[in-house]
Amino acid sequence: xxxxxxxxxxxxxxxxxxxxxxxxxxxxxxxxxxxxxxxxxxxxxxxxxxxx
Length: 52
Hints:
rod-shaped
């Protein structure tokens, strides 16, 4: 399981338009984390329903 990403600190972004920006990386990691959480919830729900 992925650990929930933490947002970058203010000092980590130089606001120079870097590519990728630390915020871009954070948002990408959050999307992966959210997809994993959704998959885990769906799997748990499916297992609960199959146990009935």
